[in-house]
Structures are given as C-alpha cells and as structure tokens.
Amino acid sequence: xxxxxxxxxxxxxxxxxxxxxxxxxxxxxxxxxxxxxxxxxxxxxxxxxxxxxxxxxxxxxxxxxxxxxxxxxxxxxx
Length: 78
What we know:
The protein is mainly α. It is built from three helices and two strands; from the N terminus they run E-E-H-H-H.
C-alpha cells in the first residue's frame, strides 16, 4: 500500500503534524485510538472525514516505521 499519498504535512494545519490529506485528523490521533482498543468502525464513526483506506494507510505506516526503527534483538544460539 502506498500510504504516503494519503498523508499531508502543512505547518498551518495541526501545528505541522502529519494528517490524513484533506482533513485535520492526525496520524497520531488514529494510532492512539487503535492503541486504546478502538475498532476501525469506531474510528470512522468518530472521524467521518476519513475512510477505511485511511485507517489502513495509518496501520501500514506504523508497520513500516516499526520495521525500520525498532532494533530486533538477536536470538540466542542453541
């Protein structure tokens, strides 16, 4: 999924935080909602300006970020 096409970053919107393009909903807000246990349907109900594909894009972004940023400890040799 090419999630970057769904995001925007504008210093005059939400203090420059990355948002879903065309909205004031930040990626951070969606991730926090998911971390709190909200379902995609609950998020879409809370933020009707975003789509299911936007939520999927945020999840894809988080997965890609974790893959790049979190060091994986080496497994002990047996």
